[in-house]
Amino acid sequence: MANKYIGAIDQGTTSTRFIVFDVAGKAVACAQKEHRQIYPQPGWVEHDAEEIWVRTQEVITEAMAEARLKAGDIAAIGITNQRETTVLWNRKTGKPLGHAIVWQDTRVAEEVGKFANEIGNPFFRSRTGLPLSTYFSALKLRWLLENIPGARHQAEAGEVLFGNIDSFLLWKLTGAENKGVHATDVTNASRTQLMNLKTLQWDDELLQAFSIPRQILPEIRSSSEVYGHIAQGPLSGVAVAGILGDQQAALVGQTCFRSGEAKNTYGTGCFLLMNTGESPTESKHGLLTTVAYKLGNQPARYSLEGSVAIGGALVQWLRDNLGLIKTSAEVEELALSVEDNGGVYMVPAFSGLYAPYWKESARGVIVGLTRYANKGHLARAVLEAVAFQTREVVEAMEQDSGIRLEELRVDGGMVSNDLLMQFQADILDRPVVLPSIKETTSLGAAYAAGLAVGFFSGVEALCGHWSAEKTWKPALEQARREQMYRQWKKAVTRTFDWIEP
After folding, report:
1. Cα dihedral 126, 131, 135, 137 sign
2. Who's near 369: CB < 8 A, 6+ residues apart?
3. Cα angle vertex 138, ends 135, 142, to 5°?
4. Which residue of 51, 223, 328, 336 is most buried, as measured by CB atoms within 10 A?
């Protein structure tokens, strides 16, 4: 095989990475750079898409140089990306019309209420598997078209393009204004609230409801096929052959190819996905129905998803906003300075509550404070909040699917926190399993690209790469587990309806 390696661009909420893998799924080179988080006003979260494009080029150059690789060594690359984050850019210049609106942004909360009252949630859920929420792309795109001067006129004239970050990077990589490919995959399209979950195409009734011109939308394609070739730079001529939203990429990277298999990713947010097979499963317990992946011409696979908005972002808040720690890694040491949470519970509803509540008007609370409480208790409450939220999602998923999870496969930056992972096993009362290859999101994108060009022989071979490195087993007595969970549920109720209409 002339091409020894497969690459993946992993464009996340806080940073961009480029990782090169060998045929066994082992990383041989990696470079990573952060980008700015822009907060113009409360509830608004933005990124500079041009800055993300620059960081993408930089990490590709660094990783290729680190491993002394040339374009001919790479069989193909895949892209995985923060989902829902919405970009609008000029077709001729390639310049964004404004900052990208990030998935966490809540500026369209009033529109959510308006659409719910005038059209109703069932209309949107039945077509997209998604409830009306500030989370998804459609209302963000509508906001950009309505609030950037001239944007709607340009859109209707075919002068601007829309995409999530995957589409923007694909277009840039494959030539931009010089015949760049404007496409997305089914997983990212399923998060816009504009794609019909059954037809896997843009839905005319949804476009009409949100007032979105069809001509600005990318073509919807599978998650594993050759979309185009890179126009210039260290990877010039290399095929871009895989695209998956970050959480679906982690599902593929964890080789959850069978119905009932699930993973939880602990990143900026936490995202639990379960493969439910070739038919969408309607959720009755506050979860999302979404596309898991579509490998070339094979039928699409669907998943149930529970999304927790604030996971690792809560540790960043402890670091950046309160200054209680200097690095994110210090949170574990601070939490270990106390024996338990001291009765302190924190519910991080900074952007409202996501699954299984979907309450836009909720806001974060810290409860149970006494003079005894100190910063160690707060640090422990921060970590426990991530695990409590995950248990709520697991319970909802088991009710929807009728399947009891025997174990939870985990990945993401927070899995290095041993205290968090042990508490997750404790509060779930089942094992938590870490794979030996931890870069599962990047790996999933690499797998999709590799399957498209024959670098990997099939999903069976990928399953052979998976093995467990560590397992945390529950060690908390039942009475204490349920008492803590009751207190958590009580704390959650204190967040409800904090924002008044």
Report:
1. positive
2. 344
3. 115
4. 223
